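Page header: ASSEMBLY MODEL / two components / 264 residues total.
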Amino acid sequence: MDLKIGDTFTITREITDDLVRAFAEVSGDHNPIHLDDEFAKQTRFGRRIAHGMLSGAFISAVLGNEFRGLTIVYLSQSMRFTAPTFIGDVITTTATITAIRKDKGIVTIETVCSNQDGAVTVTGEAAIMVMK
Amino acid sequence: MDLKIGDTFTITREITDDLVRAFAEVSGDHNPIHLDDEFAKQTRFGRRIAHGMLSGAFISAVLGNEFRGLTIVYLSQSMRFTAPTFIGDVITTTATITAIRKDKGIVTIETVCSNQDGAVTVTGEAAIMVMK
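Prediction written out in full:
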């Protein structure tokens, strides 16, 4: 696998109610803004939103699946949550290689999630080390 | 709920095989380093490791559960993965308030995961906005 700057990988997932409830179970995050319609109605969002870190899980999937031919070490991840994600949204997660340090095998990757309307919901950056 | 600098919240979770497989399903990250013993034996880790973002999910749980009396907006999260997490590890995730901007309702939180031996596996920082 020969990585180069500009290489882009994407996955698209629908935010179903089942997925949000499964993430609540796995994470242990049972905040009612994600799970309780009545509670969520009272908030600024007006309805339930997905866990922000569910988008983090999608970033994990892009990196973990697209680089699966290589052994990589996940060094760091930053995320800015720029817009809420609602049940029924279809989220595309895009990872684009922005820098490669060949001497250290460190690859920097821009990670962006956007919804079906093109609105960006998460921006951030990953760093991975590719093992020889 | 009256937040102040130094307030600390923690959760502890065991990294079971079931949990790692459930995270693989939810995230869609099926990298064999998390799921395949034979593959993992060939890597520098010598055995399967948990997804780094599973620790991100634990951070979500600390923030989502401990602040559940408040409506919060997750603004950002950074994570540095400083050591691997193995099946059978017991991970304590600690969130400590380090700064409060009362005018904007923005709270900065140091987020750290550590294992049963006290080794730090993830460091990072969250920013949340507490809604009035």
